[in-house]
Write a structure and sequence with these properties.
This protein is α+β, with helices and mostly antiparallel strands and about 100 residues long. The protein is built from three helices and three strands; from the N terminus they run ααβββα. Helix 2 packs parallel to helix 3. It is globular.
Length: about 100
């Protein structure tokens, strides 16, 4: 699945809830739209022993405002990243890529 093309919203929030947060049911936080909910995703990813960096995307090749990098294999330089116009969306995109390897 190409997370880089998914917009913020219900579908992405559900994927984050199920694949990362392990939430069941039909009530999910607005992970891809609300920074406090997205920060819960960051905390969950850190608890999985990954490293997370969220920064403004000022130097990003995509010219988007936010960039999230999640290091998945530090000793080998492996990482997954996400770009978006908002920090919550960048976090969710990178996090979904990280948990899928």
């Amino acid at each position: 699945m190409n997370y880089d093309e998914m917009p913020a919203g219900k579908e992405l929030n559900e994927l984050v809830a199920r694949k990362i947060m392990r939430v069941t049911g039909h009530f999910w936080l607005r992970y891809s739209q609300d920074i406090s909910a997205a920060w819960e995703v960051v905390e969950k990813i850190i608890a999985m022993s990954y490293t997370v960096l969220v920064s403004n995307g000022k130097h990003s090749p995509q010219s988007q405002k936010w960039h999230c990098i999640i290091t998945i294999i530090p000793q080998q330089g492996g990482y997954r990243d996400g770009y978006a116009d908002t920090a919550p969306l960048a976090i969710c995109r990178a996090a979904l890529k990280a948990v899928e390897g």
